[in-house]
Input
Amino acid sequence: MKNPLILLLVLLIALSATVSAQSIGVFTWDSKGKFTNVRNAPNGKIIDRIPTSEAAMIGVEKPTDGWWKIVGDNYDTGDSQVKVKSSDTGCWIHYSVLALGTRNYDNQKLTLRKSPDEKSAVVYQFTDEILLRPLDIKGDWVKVKTVDGKFTGWIEEEWLCGNALTNCC
Output
């Protein structure tokens, strides 16, 4: 190729095609009503409902303005796989009905940080296992909010458990 701009464009397209979306495993944790809504887009039309009586374990990716895109087309209840009604635009669920447990089973001190970096300022430290709501993901870090809404910060993904039925040991 003689034109360096065309070569650069081809390289950028190839690079973007090889980058995969980051995803995490979470479970539904919704105390309002009998169902958790699944939508066709962030804040879009309701296309399915997950009973709040069961903690549905799902994979999510591509956080957008508080909404996570569901990976695949099913969720796990521990007893069975349940197919989610899908749409051409995917299935979306709000962070406020999702949770992750922490993996500090031996009372390790975990830290939420201001940014996704071990040297970043500490926002909150705790030794009890707690539930967190996922907000964003960047590399090996997940931005979370405590379920009581008091603290928001970044934690390394290795300290999180997206399984409502086991402790991810």
About this structure: DSSP finds one helix and 14 strands in the chain.
